[in-house]
Structures are given as structure tokens and as C-alpha cells.
Amino acid sequence: MLKSDQQLIAECLAGQTHVFGDLVLRYQDRLYNMLINVLGSGEDARDVAQEAFVSAFQKLHTFKGQSAFYSWLFRIAMNSAVSRQRKRNHIPVSIEALRSQTGLEPTDQHPDNHPSYSMESAERQAAVQAALADLPEEFRKVLVLKEMDELRYEEIAAIVGCPIGTVRSRIHRARAELRNRLAPLLHEPAEK
Q1: Distances (CA, A) of 2 to 6, 7, 56, 67
Q2: Which residue of 5, 29, 61, 65 is surrounded by the most CB atoms within 10 Å?
């Protein structure tokens, strides 16, 4: 019989550190596949997954069990992936060297610094808020609890007082409705 994550964690914390390998085997493929989608590179995904498992092992004593182990590991991996992307995108360049090489005054080409960016961003946020507000209450509530409060399906079911299957169905329908309402903003055709 397979041991639960909690049993493996308890054994690991009790000194049987080799059982952490069972957690690695249980989640390495799932974490790796998620990281490939985030990072777009198998090599980076392997590196970040390894960093996440090492970090999780080192911080295992801080895991309180309030969420699933994979959720906790996922957050560690995402933080590591974001840090990796940030480091990769930050390439120090001397402005003086750039000016002398090209003879031009350097400009910041990052889209966030374009004059229209903040206005477009505010418009997108307003459109999302309006589309969310237009959703029926039963869909809006579960979507906010899932996406913004990051609650698990079980927690949402307890809050709204309906079965988990109903929660899943409502979240699915809410996402589809939101996608349809935001299709023009996303430059995608609306689903029928």
C-alpha cells in the first residue's frame, strides 16, 4: 500500500531522509511537465525542478500541511522559475558602451515602459473586472475563491455548500463564460 504524502513527510522529518526520494518519484514528472510549459525549455525545467526538490527537502520542517504537498512544492518551483527568468532577462549593459558602439541614444524597448502600456493595462483590468461582475453570482463566487483566493475544491465546496462536482462544473462554466466575454480583448473568437 502506498504511503500518503503526510506519512512520508513525517518519516523524513523523523530521520528517515531516504523516503524523500519517494516524494520525488511521485511528483517529478508532474512538476517537470508543468515547468516545461512555464519555461519553454526542458533543460531549464529539469534545473528548476531539481532546485525545487532540494529547496523542499531543506525546508521540509516548515511544511505545515495546510495545503497539499504538491501545492507547496509547486509554489517553490514557480518562485524558482520566476527568479530564473528574471536573472536571464537582466543583462547588465553599460549605457556609455552602447552609445559609443552604436552612436545612438539608447531607449528602453520594454513594452511596460511604452506610454500607452499603463492605459492599456488599466483598460484590460477594467474589462476583466466588468466581465467578472457580469457573471452569475454562483459562477463568480467559485471562480474568485479558486483563482484569487487559491482555495482547493474541497474548501470551496464547504464554503458554498454544494458538492465538489458542482464546484468543478461551475468553475469550468465560469472560465468559459469569462473567456467568451473577453474574446475581443484577447483577440480570440468566442466559443459557441
Answers
A1: 11, 10, 21, 20
A2: 5
Which stretches within the chain are classed as H helix? Answer: 5-13, 20-39, 42-58, 69-89, 95-102, 117-134, 137-147, 153-160, 164-181, 183-186
Prediction pTM value: 0.48
Q: Which CATH architecture has domain 5-89?
A: Orthogonal Bundle (1.10)
pLDDT digits (tens, 9 = 90+) for 129-179: 888 878 888 898 888 778 876 788 998 888 788 999 999 999 999 999 988
Q: What per-residue confidence (pLDDT) applies to 122?
A: 74
Q: How far is CA 26 from the centre of its chain?
A: 20
What gap in Å lies between CA 168 and CA 12, rounded to an integer?
34
Considering the segment(s) 111-185 as one domain, its CATH architecture is Orthogonal Bundle (1.10)
Tell me if 68 sits within 8 A of 5, measured CB to CB.
Answer: yes
Break the chain into its structural domains and give their ranges: 5-89, 111-185
CA–CA distances in Å: residue 189 to residues 39, 133, 180, 183, 185: 27, 21, 8, 6, 10
